[in-house]
Specification:
Layout lengths: L1 H6 L3 H66 L2 H11 L7 H13 L4 E8 L4 E6 L6 E2 L12 H4 L10 E7 L1 E2 L2 E2 L5 E10 L5 E10 L1 H8 L10 E5 L5 E3 L8 H4 L5 H4 L1 H8 L3 E4 L8 E8 L8 E8 H52 L15 H32 L1
Length: about 400
């Protein structure tokens, strides 16, 4: 049925349709291939972008944490603190004025924000404390000094060799044994003070504000308005950033709020890797999850930075790209089909003129205009042959007419 209808179309239309069909097959193949590869590339680019961002954030946090570690070592080895340690070793009672001034100057100029600097004697009692909670560091009066004999930053530091640092991990600041309200997340860095004799004489502690470090994670540095959440969890799964206030610090406050409780399958996957992507989260099927761990080599800290994104963001981008590719393919096919019509018209123009001339000659009009085609292709040869054939036919016809007239006269 279709073939019979197609045979009724002019030759130009049929030739143009053949061209269009020939172009259609590679166009469809190219469009399908482009859609598939573009989808994979978009997903890879998305993963690379988010993981790259997380690696930068992890490196920045690692640097801040390492700075605090190194600055405590520097502080413990300053001449002033060494003299202070020697005085303690000799049983003298240091005046502390020079030491407190040095500690205040250090806190005022430190790269990391510190809440306080403290020195404990071997019994775990504070002998010197400089508080940096306000705008400027101040020395805490002796009457307000506290004991820290049971604190891990004291007991663990006493077990370390010279030059080693204890890191508490993130915890909440205490005032007279009670958690500060509102909560102030801090990290304790501590090391043993040694006199020149090699004797242990006390412990020096830096209490570091954790909020500026966590806030640096939130500042992504790229356009991430499409991100659903930006979360940080501790090694035990406690939330440190990115959730409601009443869900933070689950293990410290014994609130029972943990990432592993909210997303058990995601937590198991994340715990087993240093970084990665969850493209089909079992706990959140409509969300892509990206994560990188922060684990300074010399510290008792392991955080995981997580960003999650609605899968619809990537799917919408893939759909938009697919529509664009299909639209471009259709436009390209329409343009090439139009060009095919134009080209076939140009190619078939002399053939059509030869056809018209043949019709005229068939009616005995030998004076019909036979087109001159100068091209050396088949149509050019056809035109030359047709002109020669017409000329021969005209001569033969004239000879036949003359012969007929003579025969009639005879």
């Amino acid at each position: 049925m279709f073939v019979s209808k197609l045979s009724a179309f002019p030759f130009q239309v049929k030739l143009a349709l053949v061209f269009a069909l020939v172009l259609l097959i590679p166009t469809v193949i190219f469009a399908l291939y482009s859609i598939d590869t573009t989808r994979d590339r978009l997903i890879e680019d998305q993963q690379s972008e988010h993981l790259g961002l997380l690696r930068l954030k992890a490196a920045s946090v690692d640097t801040l944490l390492e700075n605090a570690h190194d600055q405590l070592l520097f502080l413990a080895n300053t001449p002033t603190l060494r003299s202070y340690a020697n005085a303690l070793d000799e049983g003298e009672a240091p005046a502390g004025t020079e030491d407190s001034q040095m500690l205040m100057s250090f806190l005022d100029s430190a790269l990391v924000n510190y809440k306080s600097a403290r020195i404990y004697d071997l019994d775990g009692d504070e002998v010197l404390k400089v508080d940096n909670s306000a705008t400027t560091p101040v020395r805490v009066p002796d009457a307000q000094l506290e004991t820290g004999s049971q604190a891990p930053f004291f007991t663990e530091a006493l077990k370390l060799a010279n030059g080693q640092i204890y890191t508490s991990g993130l915890t909440l600041s205490l005032v007279r044994g009670r958690i500060n309200q509102p909560h102030v997340p801090v990290i304790y860095y501590s090391t043993t003070l040694f006199a020149e004799s090699g004797n242990r004489v006390g412990v020096i502690v830096l209490e570091t504000f954790a909020t500026p470090i966590l806030s640096s994670i939130r500042q992504s540095g790229v356009n991430s308005s499409h991100l659903e959440t930006f979360t940080v969890i501790d090694a035990d799964g406690s939330y440190l950033l990115g959730v409601e206030l009443d869900k933070l610090y689950g293990s410290i406050l014994n609130s029972g709020s943990y990432f592993s409780q909210d997303y058990p399958r995601d937590a198991a996957y994340i715990a087993s890797r240093s970084e990665g992507v969850l493209m089909a989260s079992q706990d959140r099927p409509d969300t892509y999850v990206y994560f990188v761990k922060v684990k300074p080599t010399r510290q008792n800290i392991e955080w995981t930075i997580i960003i999650s994104e609605p899968s619809s963001t990537v799917v919408d981008e893939i759909s938009t790209t697919r529509r664009n590719i299909l639209a471009l393919s259709v436009v390209a096919l329409m343009i090439t089909t139009g060009l095919a019509f134009v080209l076939t018209r140009i190619i078939l123009r002399p053939v059509r003129r030869l056809s018209d001339a043949a019709d005229e000659i068939s009616r005995g009009r030998w004076e019909a205009d036979i087109p001159v085609v100068t091209s050396r292709d088949e149509i050019g040869r056809l035109s030359t042959s047709f002109r020669q054939m017409t000329q021969n036919l005209e001569e033969r016809t004239l000879e036949l007419e003359v012969a007929t007239i003579k025969a009639m006269e005879a």
